[in-house]
Structures are given as C-alpha cells and as structure tokens.
Amino acid sequence: MQTTIASVTFEHPIFNAAGPLCVTTEELNAIGNSSSSAIVTKSCTRTSRDGNPEPRYRGVPLGSINSMGLPNRGYKAYINDTRVLKEHKKPIILSVSGLSLEDNCTIITAANASDADLLELNLSCPNVPGKPQVGYDFEQTDTVLAAVMKIAKKPLGVKLPPYFDFVHFEQVAKILNKHNVAFVTCINSIGNALYIDPVLEEPVIKPKGGFGGLGGQYIKPTALANVRKFSELLDCPVIGVGGIEKGVDVFEFILAGAHAVQLGTVFMEEGVGCFERIRKEFEDYCAKKGYTSVEDFRGKLKTL
Ligand code: DHB
User: Fold this and answer.
1) From the CB of 189, is ligand 1 less than 6 Å away?
2) Is 213 in the pocket of ligand 1 (CB under 6 A)?
3) What is the whole-number distance in angstroms between the Cα of residue 189 and the centre of ligand 1?
4) Which fold does the domain 3-52+69-190+216-296 belong to in CATH?
5) Which atom of ligand 1 lies nearest, measured to the CA of 56?
6) For the chain, domain boundaries
7) How many CB atoms lie within 10 A of CB 147?
8) Nearest CA to ligand 1 atom 2
C-alpha cells in the first residue's frame, strides 16, 4: 500500500494533518513513533505565537470547530526538529504559514537547508483576524506562488481551502499547474462556521465571536468533491483531508483520486492510536475488495 508524492515514498497513504497535536517536539515524536506514515508539523510562522484566546477548539458530535490562531513555536524550532525527527525514518512535511509573502520567503529559504522532505505551503488558514485566506484571492495566490517557487529547493505543495464552484476549481487549477506545484493538499477546514450551544445561548469557542474552521464528518463530501475535481484538473498528486474517521473513508478518498490522506479531527479526538486503527481497517477493506495496491483503484470512481 505504498504511495509516492514528488519522489518521496510513504509506506502507506495515511498520516497526520497539520494542526492537531503537532506543535511540540514531544507531539511530533509521538507521531514519529505511531503508525502515521509521515510527520507533518504545525503550520509555522516567522516568530512564535500563543494563538487566540481559549476555548478555541471544540469537538462536537459530527466533527469539530476551531479558531486556534496559529499557535506555534516559530519556524526555526520546527526546522531544528526536522534533524531529530529524521530518526523515525519516515517523510517529514514542514507546514509553512507565514503571515506575509516576505515571511513565507524567509521560512522557505531556511527550510531549503532543513531535513524536511516536502514543504506544504498553507494558503488557507481562516483563523487569524485581519488575514483573509490567500486561497480565496486568486491573484494573490498567483503572486505568492510565483515568488515561492523561485526560492524553494525542496518539493513544495499547497494546502487549499475548500472551493464550491466549478469555475473556481478551474481557475485555481490553472494557476497551480502554471507554477508546477509538487502536490496539493485539500481541504482545509470549512472556514468561519458557527456552532451554538442552545442551553448556554453562546458559541462553543471564544475567538472571533465564535466563528471558526469546521472539520470532521460535516466536511467529508466537500473534501471528496475537491479531491475529485483537483485530481482531474491538476498535473500533480492530491492529498485528501476532511472527515476521515474509518478505513472505508480512506478508500473513498483514493477512489476519488487521492494519492494519500491526512487525519485531523479524528487524530485530535482519538490520539495517535487512530493511525494504526484506520490503517488496519483500510487494508482489511482493500483485501475484501481484492485490491493489493492503491494503483488498483486510485481515481477509478465509476460513473452512473
Ligand atoms: C490554524 C487553522 C487552520 O485551518 C490553518 O490552516 C492554520 C492554522 C489555526 O487556527 O491555528
């Protein structure tokens, strides 16, 4: 069940999403010691950040809502961690989310000399007040990619927000193909959702008046649609993320065209054990279907 993205081989297609439980060195080592097939770091900024006021994450029956506000230790700490994390002998993906183009260029220049295997440029954080999601501004996306692709010496992919319109998929894909991005990860949380506690008559998280990124089961059909469309339109591999909780969910994402998948809400709720459970469920499902490799069914969604 190996998969390859930008010449980097993953033992199986299931690893963590940037965000949950990947901020500290201890958390990153725990991912290294787990059945996750790669280690993805929390999106980093130029300087360390405490993030938004708490409560800023809530697990809810069908998923999660968060407005963390990019709490992270600053890029130098994550670049240092890559040296140690190398010992786990699995791909390391550095997630980069600078607050300006200049910051992204600084971080990517430093990351060129790190032990990261892949860089995932996050164009879709919905939670920093006053910073709109870059992925919804196509002109800015084009400008950012033109600048960073000139600098990056490691394969650089992008993490996208969800899109909901066929014209938008085509416009974004055209830009990504023009800049030869190495991979695309989709989707980030559905931004600026609102979850209300009707008893307390308040939102469940504090920042931004309760507005935050929605994850988990709520978003799986939107994530599958984005993976399907982008895998048809792009010249590079797609990594799927959004609402995966069971092995059969992984199967659906690969059937839609994904080369690999990432776990967000389920990892936050269940901890590192989710990687082994979901890997086993996925392999059992494939065995039942008679598939021995992901190429047997990747992208082969049937039509009615
Ligand atoms: C945060 C949330 C995101 O969805 C993201 O892509 C980056 C950061 C956050 O709030 O920390």
Assistant:
1) yes
2) yes
3) 8
4) TIM Barrel (3.20.20)
5) 10
6) 3-52+69-190+216-296
7) 16
8) 125
Which residues face 66 on adjacent strands?
57, 213
Helix (H) or strand (E) holding 262: strand 260-263
Angstrom CA distances, 71 to 56, 127, 186, 292, stand at: 11, 11, 21, 40
Confidence of residue 279 (pLDDT cuts 50, 70, 90): very high
Return the SS3 of 142: helix
Distance separating alpha carbons of residues 219 and 224, to the nearest angstrom? 9
| pLDDT of 258 | 99
Report pLDDT digits (tens) over 29-81: 999 999 999 999 999 999 999 999 999 999 999 999 999 999 999 999 999 99
Q: Are the CB atoms for 243 and 249 separated by under 8 Å?
A: yes
Q: Give the closest residue to 231 by CA, choosing from 250, 251, 259.
A: 259
What pTM did the predictor assign? 0.99
**pLDDT single digits (tens) 110-151:** 999 999 999 999 999 999 999 999 999 999 999 999 999 999
Parallel/antiparallel/unpaired status of strands 238-241 and 14-16: unpaired
Quote the ligand 1 centre to 126 CA distance (angstroms).
Answer: 6
What is the distance in A from the centroid of ligand 1 to the CA of 9? 27
Contacts of 186 (CB under 8 A, 6+ apart): 159, 160, 162, 223, 226, 227, 230, 238, 239, 240, 241, 242
* Total H helices, total E strands in the chain: 9, 16
What tokens does 99 get?
């607050």
pLDDT band at 154 (very low <50, low <70, confident <90, very high): very high
236 in catalytic set: no
For 112, phi then psi, to 5°, come to -60, -30
Of the candidates 125, 236, 274, 286, the residue annotated as catalytic is 125
